[in-house]
Amino acid sequence: MGFIKWFLHNFGFFFGVLFIIYLYLIIHRIILLYDILRYVPDKNIDINKCNYNALMFLMPYFKKLDDLKNKNGHSADALIDAIWAEMDCKISVHFMAINGYIYSLILIGFAGTIFGSIGAFTQMFQGLAQNIPPVTVFIKAWNSGLSTALYTSLGSAAIGGFMVSLLYSRYLMTKAKKLETMLSLTISDILENGLIHYENSGNDKWQEINAESMN
Question: Rounded CA gap, 152 and 154, in Å?
Answer without folding.
Answer: 6
